[in-house]
From TrEMBL:
Gene source species: Flavobacterium pectinovorum
InterPro entries: ClpP/crotonase-like_dom_sf (IPR029045), PDZ_sf (IPR036034), Pept_S41_N (IPR041613), Tail-specific_protease (IPR005151)
Gene3D superfamilies (UniProt xref): 2-enoyl-CoA Hydratase, Chain A, domain 1, 2.30.42.10, 3.30.750.170
Keyword Transmembrane helix among UniProt keywords: yes
Protein name: Peptidase family S41
Length: 453
């Protein structure tokens, strides 16, 4: 009897433990609720959104410490080699990605020439703080805020420039005929740069008419401008085309699609243009030329764009370390439809897209916005995987000489290389007089490629 009583007692204890466990797991229990405005309140939301949308959500760590700064917390959720996803708060400018282009409207690279370290101005955007203060492509920077550039400090000085709100630069010009000349000081304050114009022209090389178009960015609504520009080139009977995307960090996918429709011959509106590959929640999304165009360009028809196709059999694309996102789509997604010849250096490697995820839990209040990598990108042949960058068909370094010509000048190294390739002339071997210096900073100026959720 005693053993039987003990058995009943033991069984009762087990039942009691099970009841307690079940009660603690009951769906009626309230979840942890965090106070609005706290890091925990924001970070819990971030984690949930990333688990839902992030392309590599299966590789995310556990929720972890929710009390840390949201910017730091978001970075902890990312795949190690994901340099494109970011989070920002519209009321906190310090959380936004930093670049010279966004702040001042220009960018630079560094070279070593005759024992000197020089910053080469690659471009100055139209009506930007840089352009309005006299900066132009090809000018050389010798010092920043009174500090002369050296091999030991150029990298850190560049980082400081991207974080600054005002720059004091010592500039000098260079030409093969004059050497160094026209030294001057320039002060630039942070400001805005707006929509940029297209640079287009026809270059006659023997009996060949070459169209040259430089596109600085793929802005929303550019289809009409592309239509006008390429109709003019078609009317001038070009038979070759050089498309300059070397400083185009991307932008609107519908805008890039509109250009692709113009350039790709013998396509139909229903032909597959792009494929988005998400996680298990997002799945695979395929878009035809028509669908990708209509995602943000509904006022210009597919047929109107297609009828503007010039008489070309191939397209030469100038590219480099700033060519990213929608510009890389032009290269990768046009290749199934037309021969694409790239000239320059390896591109950035932004083969991901997404859409902004906003924290709108509190009505009327601006809060954090996430720009996660949601989709990997592929073309009509399911070709993609260019996260390491797209290698050019023809290698060329635009900074192999300290004299850097304006974009569109046929003496400019990349354009000159394209003209030689078109004419079948490999060109004479050039004497390299300078060499580019690397930056440790990961390139962050690639625009988020936004798609319609």
């Amino acid at each position: 009897m005693k053993n039987k009583a003990l058995s009943y007692l033991f069984y009762g204890i087990i039942l009691l433990i099970e009841v307690i466990i079940l009660s603690s797991c009951s769906s009626d229990d309230p979840e942890q609720v965090y106070t609005e405005g706290t890091n925990e309140y924001t970070n819990e939301w971030m984690y949930g959104q990333m688990k839902k949308y992030y392309r590599w959500n299966d590789a995310m760590p556990n929720q972890g410490d929710l009390s840390v700064n949201p910017k730091e917390y978001f970075a902890r959720l990312l795949k190690t080699d994901d340099v494109f996803s970011y989070a920002m708060h519209p009321a906190l400018p310090e959380t936004a990605p930093k670049s010279l282009r966004q702040k001042f409207g220009f960018d630079i690279s560094f070279i070593e020439y005759q024992g000197k370290v020089l910053g080469v101005i690659l471009y100055a955007l139209y009506d930007s703080p840089a352009k309005n203060n006299g900066l132009a492509r090809g000018q050389l920077i010798t010092s920043v805020d009174g500090v002369e550039l050296t091999l030991n400090n150029y990298d850190s000085l560049y980082k400081n420039m991207t974080a600054a709100t005002q720059l004091n630069l010592k500039l000098i010009s260079y030409s093969a005929q004059l050497g160094f000349y026209n030294e001057k000081q320039v002060a630039i304050s942070q400001g805005f740069s707006f929509t940029q114009p297209l640079l287009s022209q026809v270059i006659t090389n023997g009996n060949t008419k070459i169209g040259y178009v430089e596109i600085p960015h793929f802005d929303v609504g550019m289809a009409k401008l592309f239509l006008q520009t390429f109709q003019e080139l078609k009317n001038k009977q070009i038979t070759e085309l050089v498309l300059d995307l070397r400083y185009n960090g991307g932008g609107d996918i519908a805008s890039a699609t509109a250009l692709s429709i113009i350039l790709a011959p013998n396509i139909k509106s229903g032909d597959l243009f792009i494929e988005f590959e998400g996680n298990k929640n997002g799945g695979i999304v395929k878009q035809s030329f028509q669908q990708a165009l209509e995602s943000n360009e509904k006022n210009i028809s597919f047929e109107a764009l297609k009828n503007t196709h010039p008489n070309i059999q191939k397209v030469y694309i100038l590219c480099g370390k700033h060519t990213a996102s929608a510009s890389e789509i032009i290269i990768n997604n046009l290749s199934p439809f037309i021969n694409v010849i790239t000239i320059g250096e390896k591109t950035v490697g932004k083969d991901v897209a997404g859409f902004p995820v906003e924290d709108d839990r509190i009505s009327g209040k601006k809060d954090w916005v996430l720009y996660p990598s949601i989709y990997k990108l592929f073309n009509a042949k399911h070709e993609g995987g260019y996260a390491a960058g797209i290698n050019p068909s023809i290698n060329a370094d635009e900074l192999e000489n300290p004299e850097v010509f304006a974009l569109g000048n046929r003496s400019e190294i990349l354009l000159n290389t394209a003209i030689n390739a078109i004419s079948g002339n490999a060109g004479k071997a050039k004497m390299v007089k300078s060499h580019a210096l690397p930056l440790s900073k990961v390139y962050t100026d690639a625009d988020p490629l936004l798609v319609t959720p």
